[in-house]
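Newbie here. two chains, one complex. Structure please?
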Amino acid sequence: MTAEEVAASLESGMTVGIGGWGSRRKPMALVRAILRSPLEDLTIVSCGGPDVGLLCAAGKVRRVVAPFVTLDSVPLEPHFRAARQNGTVELTEYDEGMFMFGLLAAAHRLPFLPTRAGLGSDVMRINPELRTVRSPYGPAGVWYGAAGRGPEGGPGRDAGGDGDGDGDGDGDGAEDARGEGEELVAVPALTLDAALVHLERADARGNGRYLGPDPYLDDLFAKAAARTYLSCERLVDPGGLDGPPQTLLVSRMHVTGVVEAPGGAHFTAHSTEGGEHGRDEAFQRHYADSAADPEAWAVFADRFLSGDETAYRDAVRRWHEERVR
Amino acid sequence: MSATRAEVCVTACAEAWRGDGEILAAAMGTCSILGARLARLTFEPGLLTTDGGALLTAEPVPIGAPAGPVEGWLPFRDHLWLVQNGRRHVMMGASQIDRYGNTNISAIGDRARPTSQLLGVRGAPGNTICNPTSYWIPRHSTRVFVPKADVVSGIGSDRAAGLGAHTSRFHDLRRVVTDLGVFDFGAPDGAMRLVSVHPGVQVGQVVAATGFDLAIDGDVPRTRWPSDEELRLIREVLDPRGLRDREVRT
């Protein structure tokens, strides 16, 4: 597929997950294709970086679902900030662990997963749709440990914690706070209409391999989505993905289409065969500086974002050549 | 040897992990990262530290340096599971912190349309409910030390108490280190208390830079100076480029 065909297959109003993390291995070529498309009113689910910023700047986004939006080496994402401060984009803000649990739930067709993360924080206040769930077991669950000792060194399956499921864990009067099952945040499944991820290698069938030290959450995005599109630095024939099998992150059973996009994560970090991180820090700074000023942004957008991906790559190359001169 | 304020801050950050044993020392901010690695090189050798990315390094490495030999793998997903597991003491930053240690890294002002959109809550809610948590704040001011955090990302002692003893049993706010002093939450109601002022800092200076009433018990001691060996490790091993002085100016 081409990046344009991926964008053309999406519809306005969709919930789209974007892999990577901050300014790391983002499917930027696919994001740039969306910028050129008529898509709008998207809900973007992302550990946000310049993917979120660019889509906000282009008016494609109604809502962002994220634990953060950052450029990593530049802490705050200027376009996302502006969109929030202008009130043009809504934000569903989860703790990082909650966010991962939401993807895990969706990836496994569960309505929610429980976690402590979020309890007591304003995540519960600013997301009034969030609910809690109470454990049907005693304080530590059903204990299978040695000699009847609980995991905290206490007498383990004591009052009400006998796991008989009768639900009267508060039968012990004074111990009721401990005997009652724990209340946890029920993180709802983050089910996606589509997911976009970028890996360093893929085969023509849609199997994907990452080269760097971190898979991020890309396999979870792929499993949480009805359709996943995978872009890659280099496309190989089936059977041509050499390397440790545990780096085969995404399976073709979860991938709808593959796009060969050399430099397709630019300007975010990705890895090469040598293993080094390739974030284009100079260009990212240029992006962030331009984004802070409307006139400078118009110049940036005209120079880098008005043509196709080949034009983008040529414009970036020329920009670097001018800098060294 | 005389130490700079940044070097005092690095050792004060290191002290936060004293006694922690074999857990991950997770750190954000230059002096905090240096402190974790310094603690591991000196009085807390069991600590685990990272290269700033997904690798647990076999030895503490200079800030910004490649990992070198590694002893473990901690990509973001496993880091998030480790938060649930609990063998971790994190030192985070905060754009706002209040009297009970509620912190904000999310947004300033009305959340529907903030006057300043910041990072988002990141891992702060999970960190504070699951792990020992400390804070490193490089510039102590009334803009940061506020009566009330606009959005509570990391939960403080009052909110933890409100959850009940069982639900909040892993909540453990240890200390706050700033460019002016060291603080804990040792007041009877769990409020912030001044533990020590850095050499050259007056108590009145700290009070003036704090937007709420600090608990102060009698005479406030001075934060200790780094030892000669600690200064050597900071200057020659961990931060030869002097990045600490960009975060805290003398």
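Moderator note: Residues 153-176 of chain A have pLDDT under 50 and may be disordered. The radius of gyration of chain A is 23 Å. Thread marked as resolved.
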